[in-house]
């Protein structure tokens, strides 16, 4: 993770100072890092005496973000023409309007700041960009911004930022030997009151029993390809109807399958509708799944990416295996 430069800190500080109201929005299908970075940014601008609205297209399916749903809206607060001139948009944990999903209102033509850590990020023209692909989470960037613009982080904000950091790092399991600055930043959050044990229980606990059955179904459907280096599994619409969509635990699925001997990458294809699927990609080591995800209109990180694609499970899986044959 790169430390924020003084130029970046000043640019962000000036961005906050010259506006009175902020729309703060992350990507659709939000995860913990997305939601927590939004909330922490709201706390930041509030500390600077500004007003804000948190926006999300949802859905809030994940157990660890359910408690925050009532803080967000999918409809922009109405502003007069004069008020809009003094307003701005902060996009976090993604960089493209399309990734924001269905928000009721016009987010275009607002002074915009993008805070992101995705390798495939491409921001709107003219936006202030604070993008660091070496950062493990958007919350890690927001923490540095908060400390630079506001100062020491209070307990509630520290808890929010620590939760987001832990979700995107797999509770630090995905970090490597170049992550000293991340651990230093995390230690400051703990010093401010974030509780690692309570955060772990919050992120991993409270899953509906039905999600354990759904996990078993996905495990039983898993198939190995490319001499065991790739595992692909899926979830059908029948699975979703039988076991529900609330509290899905794909992270546990990836962890279990990546632990298999020889396995370097795991793909999870979920049939969302008759003609569309979402695809999750995870990998170990130097296998760059973001390059494969890009072939299906998605992107993300080297070891964790996603995509939405038209098609059905049975037709997509051969295409996915073909793309992985080029990189494994």
Automatic annotation (TrEMBL):
Signal peptide: none annotated. Residues 23-164 form the DDH domain. Residues 242-321 form the DHHA1 domain. It holds the Pfam family DHHA1. InterPro entries: DDH_dom, DHH_sf, DHHA1_dom, Oligoribo/pAp-PDE_c-di-AMP_PDE. GO terms for molecular function: nucleic acid binding. This is DHHA1 domain protein. It comes from Treponema socranskii subsp. socranskii VPI DR56BR1116 = ATCC 35536. The lineage of its organism: Bacteria, Pseudomonadati, Spirochaetota, Spirochaetia, Spirochaetales.
